[in-house]
Amino acid sequence: MPDLVAYTDGACSGNPGPGGWGALMRAKDGDTILKERELKGGEADTTNNRMELLAAISALEALDRPSTLTIITDSAYVKNGITGWMHGWKRNGWKTSTRKPVKNVDLWQRLDEAQSRHTVTWEWIKGHAGHEGNEKADELARAGMAPFKTGKRGKDG
Fold first, then answer.
1. Is residue 153 part of a domain?
2. pLDDT computed for residue 151 by the predictor
3. Is residue 125 part of a domain?
4. Residue 14 lies in a domain
5. Residue 154 within a domain
6. Is 70 exceeded by the pLDDT of residue 154?
């Protein structure tokens, strides 16, 4: 069975501001890439953290059957949230340890639901450090943001 890996990244021009997300999905056998799929999208008014979350959500939601995969992100927010903080948030009714509402709760709940169908290993890597998969995810995120940046809209937007 091939290994499934998703590199995810978010980008934002201003925070908040126009943003994009990207995910590079790869099925691999050792070092051989068997299949690759690129996903991207964006929003006109968002934050970097929301785009990071949407990248991971989109990767998971793109899978049409329960899968085992590794999600590689340069977002400590996503990695720490999904592997550590979320358990407490859920126990506290989606409130932080200081009893404040969890920011981006809509996306955290969506990520929780999307992850529940799969067996996921989460890995954090340093962003903009020359890691090929992460650099491609960053490129996709910036491409997803491009239509929402001022002066970059097409004639239909």
1. no
2. 57
3. yes
4. yes
5. no
6. no
Q: Which of 19, 22, 52, 81 is catalytic?
A: 52
30 — alpha (psi -120 to 50), left (phi > 0) or beta?
left
57, 22 Cβ separation under 8 angstroms: no
Q: Is 128 a catalytic residue?
A: yes
| Dihedral (CA of 50, 53, 55, 60) sign | negative
Domain of 56 in residue numbering reads as 3-148
Cα angle value 46/140/152 (rounded, 5°): 60
CATH of the domain at 49: 3.30.420.10
* C-alpha to C-alpha distance for 10 and 53, rounded to whole angstroms: 8
> Structural domain tally of the chain?
1
How many C-beta atoms surround the C-beta of residue 136 within 10 A? Answer: 18
- Asked whether 147 and 42 are in contact (CB, 8 A), the reply is yes
Does 29 appear as a known binding residue?
Answer: no
At 4-25, the pLDDT tens digits run 999 999 999 999 999 999 999 9
Q: Which of 41, 43, 74, 144 is catalytic?
A: 74
pTM for the structure as a whole? 0.93
Residue 58: phi and psi, rounded to 5, are -65, -40
Whole-angstrom Cα distance, residue 108 to residue 156? 32
Q: How far apart are CA 2 and CA 69, in angstroms?
A: 10
